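ESCALATION

Customer reports they have been waiting on this structure for their group meeting. Please prioritize. Original submission:
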Amino acid sequence: MTEFEEIYSEYFEDVYRYVLCLCRNESIAEDITQETFFKALKNIDSFKGDCKMSVWLCQIAKNSYFSYLKKEQNNFERFEDIVDIFDAGFEQILVDDDSAFEIHKLLHNLEEPYKEVFTLRFFGDLPFLKIAELFGKTESWARVTYHRARIKLKEKLI
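Update from on-call: job pushed to the front of the queue and completed.
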């Protein structure tokens, strides 16, 4: 048995239980635990021994879980935006390439800066602060412009 296999055998259950306490979902806990050990294997040389191995692994697990949550939140917000835009005229919309193409067609005729702000935020996943920096405006301006772009897109659907 290799050194890493020993680490895996010794700490798997502890890391899994820790992640399960965070997320309260067995499937997610399994995935995050596997990702934790994959990351640990890739970075085992960076473990200096200044803390316990279990603490190091749980820190990786916590960071992996928070990254997962952030990704899921972004996916949920994007899905909400699509549903919100298309609920004005469609019975049901699926998040796929056809939906994106429909939005692009509508965006093509949207005036500036609404077109660019919406594109940067929705398709580019750019934070409002970065969009504001691009335009030399405030973060509030970017949020309002994005919101107005969504309203304009809805109006085009009606």
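Sent to customer with the following note: Residues 93 and 99 are 7 Å apart (CA to CA).
Escalation resolved.
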